[in-house]
């Protein structure tokens, strides 16, 4: 099981996957050359969402299609200076993001 972990210190942020640095995937989109962030909807959280999904999905096109919604649903909600996320939690979030809207009855 993959484990994503973010830590914020006075020196900046570090994000790992299974203890190894998470590739920021600037090759796909360069939202934040200064690194990852979380807890709001900005460029650092967008880069983090893209990097997590690219790593998790192994599908760059799908990651690029979903990362803004993932940022809003998950990354913007991370609170504090440390968080953890496993691959099952990523899948659960993706299932909610990709679920078709329920039609309204009239």
Written account of the structure:
With 106 residues, this protein is α+β, with helices and mostly antiparallel strands. The chain has one domain (3-98). 39% of the residues lie in helices and 19% in strands. It contains 3 helices and 4 strands. The protein has helices spanning 43-57, 60-73, 87-98, and strands at residues 3-9, 12-17, 20-21, 82-86. The chain has a 4-stranded antiparallel beta sheet with strand order 3-2-1-4. Strand 1 and strand 2 form a beta hairpin. The longest helix is centred in the middle third of the chain and has 15 residues, at 43-57. It is globular and about 55 Å long.
Count of individual beta strands:
4
Strand content: 15-25%
Distance linking N and C termini: 44 Å
Major beta-sheet overview: 4 strands, antiparallel
| Spatial order of the strands forming the largest sheet | 3-2-1-4
Order of SSEs: EEEHHEH
Structural class: alpha+beta
Q: State mean pLDDT (0 to 100 scale).
A: 94
User: How helix-rich are the residues, as a percent range?
Assistant: 25-40%
Low-pLDDT segments, ≥5 res = none
Number of helices: 3
Instruction: Name the overall outline.
Output: globular
The Rg value, from CA coordinates, equals 14 Å
